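thought: user wants a sequence for this fold. calling inverse folding tool.
action: design(structure=
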């Protein structure tokens, strides 16, 4: 390199700048500033896995005063017909009081006494069978569950009985049964007969949708083409477990492997007389609470089911006479046999009920806490008192919980209407996208309720220990919400597996990497874009980890390598699931009703939760 002329290195920078034209000096100084800022900002962003916070990017995020989600300008209240739903809830609450009387339910009374309450509701017409088959009826069905989950008419165990009988039992027969089977149900139902849903097995637990070992084998009973289904529990692992209303039920729908001519046709649904010979029902024992609800182990010792017990709207068995005897022909409607998603479609409406009830329960606790905090005066100095609700930390927490409740409520009402329309069409399988959004609701609604109630109880002092407070043992119903109708962990894995499959291959992976880089360079993000960036960066990290662990696995088969890698990924799977579910909820509400103060608060809370690795 050529040396600098003598004395050049000793010239002060200020003299160099003074010798330049003003516009050149200003441009030079500005470029130095931008370069230094870019280096510092990009380094900070890389260290924090955040976007580059350019000065102008914050201006893009700033807006004027945002309206609340339920204000008229957002249109959510009118689009979701909130006023009509509140009126319907009040009508159902009055009907509930007329049938069962005032007062809250005893959650630990005898299950026989408690089951009679559901018989009273059934005979008294609290809900009609049409409430689980039509679009408007389904909205009444969801409203009926919200009433039982509200603090002024709280009946936790009865709400579970209601969804088991109406949704899982009656809904499955009406969705999958033939016209004769539906007529049978409409004849039996007004008498107060109760039903249950037998799916979960001891060996599979919450994975029972993937593993069903109970078998129903078609068996011939003579030379005239007559036969029956032999329902049997082949091993202790196949015993049905956690069957709600299993002791009180008169009838049930049981999911079992259909075996025809020695060939398994997969899980199918059968109507079962719970008093039939060979059916054994045993109580699971006392629980910490909610003993008013009977949960049972149910097993079958070669129970003889009549030939018309198979729900046969979508599939059936037809005896065919051949030269060497009779053969049972298995037929189905459409291009393929009914999938498990079709067979267990009512699990989706059950998940909506659970999510909706969790938010309704939280809304009641929030209201009771707000009322107490408004009246509770606390000293702020030697001369002044102010309501607990006005202390900055308490006010912020109440506002945050209220905003999150609003977003979840709007999201669930949107899903309920979409699901009700799909049920009314009755064309079989629910769209996968809708099932994914329902899973997101089922995962996040109970988690929000559990976390929020814990925080509210922490900050109301000794009131949280009082019997009249909303913080008693009834809160354990939220744990039921967490594992019923599909455990949250299992649904989270389902959400992430779908994401991973969608990004298999070079092109989708390159698109994901480009989205992350583009968001990183674009600056501070807001709303769904912020949650989308967090999801994409976590997903990119997960894909890299899965690939790395699969290479390190000592298993010989590819499937085992992938399973080993999935297990080793551990908490990262659930981190991706959480931010993905939060992004689904936020984007659905914001795209439907626009940006609001509630969606922004929800987004901030969600981003904070998602950046705290595995907080729950």
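)
observation: tool returned 616 residues.
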């Amino acid at each position: 390199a050529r040396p600098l002329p003598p004395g050049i290195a000793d010239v002060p920078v200020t003299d160099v700048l003074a010798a330049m034209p003003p516009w050149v000096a200003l441009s030079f100084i500005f470029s130095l500033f931008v370069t230094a800022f870019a280096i510092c900002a990009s380094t900070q962003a890389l260290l924090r896995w955040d976007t580059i916070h350019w000065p102008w990017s914050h201006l893009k995020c700033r807006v004027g005063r945002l309206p609340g989600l339920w204000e008229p300008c957002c249109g959510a209240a009118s689009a979701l017909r909130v006023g009509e739903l509140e009126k319907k809830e009040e009508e159902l609450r009055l009907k509930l009081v007329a049938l069962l009387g005032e007062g809250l339910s005893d959650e630990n009374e005898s299950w026989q006494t408690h089951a009679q309450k559901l018989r009273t509701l059934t005979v008294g017409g609290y809900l009609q069978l049409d409430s689980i088959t039509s679009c408007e009826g389904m909205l009444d069905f969801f409203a009926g569950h919200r009433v039982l989950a509200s603090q002024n008419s709280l009946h936790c165990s009865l709400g579970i009985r209601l969804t088991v009988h109406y949704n899982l039992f009656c809904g499955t027969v009406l969705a999958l049964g033939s016209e004769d089977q539906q007529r049978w149900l409409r004849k039996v139902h007004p008498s107060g007969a109760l039903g249950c849903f037998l799916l979960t097995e001891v060996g599979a637990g919450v994975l029972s949708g993937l593993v069903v070992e109970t078998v129903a084998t078609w068996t011939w009973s003579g030379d005239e083409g007559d036969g029956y289904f032999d329902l049997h529990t082949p091993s202790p692992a196949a015993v049905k477990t956690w069957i709600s209303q299993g002791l009180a039920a008169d009838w049930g729908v049981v999911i079992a492997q259909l075996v025809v001519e020695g060939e398994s046709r997969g899980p199918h649904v059968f109507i079962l007389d719970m008093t039939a010979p060979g059916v054994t029902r045993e109580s699971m024992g006392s629980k910490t609470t909610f003993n008013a609800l009977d949960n049972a182990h149910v097993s079958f010792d070669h129970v003889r089911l009549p030939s018309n017990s198979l729900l046969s709207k979508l599939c059936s068995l037809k005896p065919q006479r051949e030269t060497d005897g009779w053969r049972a022909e298995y037929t189905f409607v459409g291009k393929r046999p009914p999938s498990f998603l079709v067979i267990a479609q009512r699990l989706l409406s059950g998940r909506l009920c659970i999510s909706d009830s969790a938010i309704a329960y939280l809304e009641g606790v929030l209201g009771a806490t707000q009322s107490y905090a408004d009246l509770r005066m606390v000293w702020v100095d030697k001369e002044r008192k102010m309501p607990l609700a006005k202390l900055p930390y308490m006010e912020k927490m109440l506002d945050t919980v209220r905003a999150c409740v609003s977003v979840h409520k709007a999201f669930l009402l949107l899903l309920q209407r979409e699901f009700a329309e799909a049920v009314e069409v009755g064309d079989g399988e629910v769209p996968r996208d809708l099932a994914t959004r329902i899973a997101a609701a089922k995962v996040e609604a109970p988690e929000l309720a559990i976390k929020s109630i814990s925080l509210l109880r922490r900050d109301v002092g000794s009131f949280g220990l009082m019997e009249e407070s909303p913080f008693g043992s009834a809160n354990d119903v939220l744990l039921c919400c967490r594992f019923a109708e599909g455990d949250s962990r299992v649904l989270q894995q389902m959400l992430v597996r779908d994401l991973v499959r969608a990004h298999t291959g070079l092109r989708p992976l390159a698109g994901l990497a480009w989205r992350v880089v583009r968001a990183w360079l674009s600056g501070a993000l807001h709303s769904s874009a912020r949650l989308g960036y967090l999801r994409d960066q976590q997903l990119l990290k997960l894909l890299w980890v899965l690939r790395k662990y699969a290479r390190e696995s000592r298993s010989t088969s590819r499937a085992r390598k992938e399973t080993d890698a999935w297990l080793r990924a551990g908490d990262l799977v659930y981190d991706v699931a959480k931010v993905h579910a939060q992004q689904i909820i936020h984007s659905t509400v914001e795209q439907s009703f626009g940006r609001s103060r509630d969606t922004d608060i929800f987004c901030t809370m969600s981003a904070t939760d998602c950046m705290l690795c595995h907080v729950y």
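thought: summarizing for user.
answer: Here is the designed sequence. Residues 611-616 have pLDDT under 50 and may be disordered.
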